[in-house]
Amino acid sequence: MTLWQGRFGDDRSDELKALNDSLGFDVRLFREDIAGSRAHVRMLGKSGLLDSSEVTSILDALDQVESEIGEGSFEFRPEDEDIHTAVERRVTELTPAGAKLHTGRSRNDQVATDLRLWVKSAIDSTLHLIIELEKIILRRAEADGHASLPGFTHLQRAQPVTLGRHLLAHGWALSRDFDRLLDARRRTDVSALGAGALAGSGLPLDPEVTASELGFDAVFDNTLDAVSDRDFVVESMFALSLLGVHLSRIGEELVIWSSTEFGYVRLSEDYATGSSMMPQKANPDVAELARGKAGRLIGNLTGFLVTLKGLPLAYNKDLQEDKEPLFDSFDTIGLLLRAVAGMIETLRFDIRRMAEAANDEYLQATALADWLVERGVPFREAHRIIASPRARSGGSSRPCDGRPPEKQAP
Description:
Blueprint: H1 14-20, H2 23-26, H3 30-46, H4 52-71, H5 83-94, H6 107-144, E1 148-153, E2 156-162, H7 163-188, E3 190-191, H8 207-213, E4 218-219, H9 223-228, H10 231-257, E5 265-266, H11 285-308, H12 323-346, E6 348-349, H13 351-358, H14 365-374, H15 379-387, H16 389-393
Helix pairs in contact: 3-4, 3-6, 3-8, 4-5, 6-7, 6-12, 7-10, 10-11, 10-12, 11-12, 14-15
């Protein structure tokens, strides 16, 4: 029996069930759902709505349900339309007091709280992976950062830079991703339990107790907002999308740098694949998939924003569409962070090839213009002189070593 079936008959159309049921994906919230129920039950006990024996029996039943689901022995039934229904149904089978589990609570505030708990944990895991990737980038910068290579604008050689500076540019982008996720976590850290369906409850509930029990930093300010707010989902997916864009840029560079035409890096065979037809190929599939998955992350974000844009207050069933893109985005970014970290840790830089490319005399054009400026030539005039066809094509073909002209070897 569903949780809402009181005024309905026993039959549901197959189409309704297929559209409405979410157990196939929200089952991964079972630990958060049970944690929320534990906090709710303890609060009901403190408020006098459950006696001590009822509290104990429900908590024991919740422990058993968590073990059964975790071990894979839990028997889900066709009428279990979501994880909340499945847990409550099983608790009620284990103890008559289970019929009081949902006292003063709606699935609206329940699922909002479950999802906030899950997102907090998922952000924490992602932050850890970002730190690990940053450490690897820092180690590579310390080990090989002295090497010189061309810096690029418009994918054209521009000025020489060190490999360390180049690698750490990606590190700074990742540090901003870290800060964005941390900021999103702060706004996620708000309990919705006690908001009810949309207008709270006439029972003597204490949302502060459940919030404290669950480790939330704050309690909702407005009941309608509490059950309908999915800003925290959007913010998290935006932060993940931008993180994915930054990983995509790393992937794009490694695709280019590992090509024969550039030859700046050689990827480990652990992070490359071969060709089914061309035996000589080593394809940078991890780098390419890091690039490709960014589109998936952006699509998840965009799709859910479109879902939200027309919703009136308060809860609407459309909000059930939050979980699949959210789960997929965190799963995708977690895999990408681990794969990109491994790829960067195991690749080999061709320092000689980079240095040869950096020794192109034209990369010193800006330095020469600056040298003229230091001797009183207006910059626009210096720019014109260095950019003139005669300067570009005349004179020795010997590479410039970066020193002022009077100090260059003859």
